[in-house]
Amino acid sequence: MKTRQRTWTKRAATILSLVAVTLPMATTVASAATTTDDLSAHEAPYGYFVDTYQQNTKKNTTQTNNPVVGEMAEFSTYWNNDKAANPVLLGENVGKAAAITQKRTDAEATRSYLTDRRDLRYNLISGLGPYASAFIKNADAKTDFTSMPSTPLPANAPYSKVTWASTTSPLGPLVKLVDTTARSPFSGTGIVKHVVRYVRPYRQSTDVKVVPALSKVMAAAKADDYDFPSGHTTAAFESGETLAYAVPERFQELITRSSEVGYDRILAGRHSPLAVMGGRMVGTAMTAATLNDPKNQELMKQAYAVAHTDSLLKTKDLSANDDFKDYQTNRDAYRFRMTYGFSQTGNTTQTMRVPKGAEVLLATRLPYLNATQRRDVLFTTGMPSGYPVMDDAEGWGRLDLFSAANGYGALNDQVTVNMDASQGGFNAKDNWRNNIAGKGRLTKTGSGSLTLSGNNSYTGGTLLKAGALQLATTSALGKGNVTIKGGQLQLATTKVTIKGNFQQAKAGQLKLSRDAHVNIKKTAKLNGTLKLTAGSLKNGTKLITFHAHKGKFKHVSGLPKGWHVVYTKHAVKLAK
After folding, report:
1. The CATH number of the domain where 260 resides is what?
2. Residues 538-542, mean pLDDT to the nearest whole number
3. Burial classification of residue 35, based on how many CB atoms lie within 10 Å of its CB (0-12 exposed, 13-18 middle, 19 or more buried)
4. If DSSP codes are grouped into helix, strand and coil, which group holds residue 234?
5. Same domain, 421 and 342
């Protein structure tokens, strides 16, 4: 057994060394939902988690009467009756844990120690970045752990003794909402842990190196202090996703910190990768259940409202350290922690499933979409099947909330986005960063502004009726026809390719810099306004090229006196 673990330690170390330069998985599932049936919820043996979450009690210990036990059912195919049913996978699991602890830096050791000792909810405050200090002040947040000791804690050392934040503070409703999720009497993993009874990794192999400050505490832990699933990770996702609901402006940063808490549990030697993957699933399902519960709806409104006052989001500390300021770093870290580099050893052909009620997790992040559309976003950004632990009956394990916060991964027959800028926030302005595939069409209406930043390949075309559609990549418009009936199509890059036909109506505007280029592969029908912005002026510059064209722009603005545009057979050019 130990030889196998050492082998996996070496292999896991190799995987970890590659994480900085590669993504170990596909970006999205291959196709969009084509009918509403594809988006229907799949009932598990216990029912639906959001309906049955209050059955996670000590008297319920089976896959049919306890939703947490049912959600974690796949693990019984790896570990059953206190022994390995899949020794290869479990050997890899411990090997990965060992490799992570052996490569742990001093900074990671300190962070994982603080994560271990602090209140589970306090751990997520750092995800607020420049708003963290305002939260600490206005939520009266406290911790009694600020540094790591140079010698091990005594075996009976307690966890944090202070109240993490106050429900009577200016941010009281937000604190109370987090408490409602992360301290629900129906949350927690103690029951399922004692059903599974999987041993902690540091007790399976001495190759797993525990943080020295915790060595006596961990050595003295009870024999039934089990690994799977991770309770700290569960609480992290409950806290992080609840905060993300109230503070969607930090959605991806908060869930990245949630995933980092899980990683911290491995760094400390406390948990295995499979255990923190399971914790993510339980925490996500519990959060969705809490946010779907009718009795919490008023509190949710209050929490969101108070978060968007001077007590939090209107008080930004520009000098504050933000560990989650870099989008790509967050994305790479979150994606790796979805699977920890495990291979797809299960059935890889399962269609994506979206659990009942999961759409509530995106309600404030994508407020301009309706519930069905948010389910479609979850469907089209979900993970492929076949990864260990993640193929639960409802689909909680395959939800990729980081990608879902970037909008659709693929389009249905038609997706209409109606953004009302007067409502502010993401209703006024948003950015879809995913690479959007599919056969559907994107229709943009309403007064808000939507940016497309992906390498898109959807083929159904793009229709702009109102507001602004901003293009940040060459292929932002996919492969179909483009029509501007109203609103403004804006180039945020110097080159955009339209692979189909282009048509602009009288009420439409096309906005680009004077050194940008729109390449229309087929026919262009021109009308409306061409608005040029700052850029170099060079006689003969081709602003727009096409196979053929009809009509001309009725108005051209943004050129100095003496400059104009001319129309040739295949181009619109600058001329003086």
Report:
1. 1.20.144.10
2. 96
3. exposed
4. helix
5. no
Residues 324 and 468 grouped into a single domain: no
What does each C-alpha distance from 233 to 236, 279, 414 come to in angstroms? 5, 5, 38
Q: Is the pTM of this model over 0.70?
A: yes
Beta bridge partners of 566: 573
Range of the domain at 208: 2-30+81-354
Are 17 and 89 in the same domain?
yes
Same domain for 416 and 331?
no
The pLDDT value given to residue 331 = 98
Residue 484 lies in a domain: yes
359 lies in some domain? no
Straight-line distance from the first to the last Cα atom of the chain, in angstroms, rounded to the nearest whole number: 79
In a domain, 371, yes or no: no
Among 329, 354, 379, where does a domain finish?
354
Which pLDDT tens digit goes with each residue over 316-358? Answer: 998 899 999 999 999 999 999 999 999 999 999 999 999 999 9
Q: Are 307 and 299 in contact (CB under 8 A)?
A: no
**CA distance readout (Å), 547 to 479, 511, 569:** 16, 21, 8
- Is there a single domain that holds both residue 420 and residue 550? yes
- What is the count of structural domains for the chain? 2
Query: Rounded to the nearest 5 degrees, what angle is found at the Cα of 75, between the Cα atoms of 72 and 81?
Result: 115
Q: Are residues 89 and 213 in the same domain?
A: yes
Tell me which residue has tokens 């104009």. Answer: 564
- Read off the pLDDT of residues 255-268 as tens digits, 9 standing for 90 and up: 999 999 999 999 99
**Region 220-243 average pLDDT:** 98
Is the previous residue joined to 229 through a cis bond, with omega within 30 degrees of 0? yes
Distance in angstroms (rounded) separating the CA atoms of residues 377 and 400? 10
Backbone angles phi, psi at 296, to 5 degrees: -105, 0
Of 414, 453, 416, 413, the C-alpha closest to 435 is 453
Are the C-beta atoms of 532 and 556 separated by less than 8 Å? yes
DSSP category for residue 311: T
- Is residue 198 located within the same domain as residue 264? yes
Tell me the one-letter amino acid at 28: T
61-92 tens-digit pLDDT = 999 999 999 999 999 999 999 999 999 999 99
Q: Both tokens of residue 329?
A: 């770093």
Rounded-to-integer distance, Cα 224 and Cα 198, Å: 9
Residue 146 lies in a domain: yes
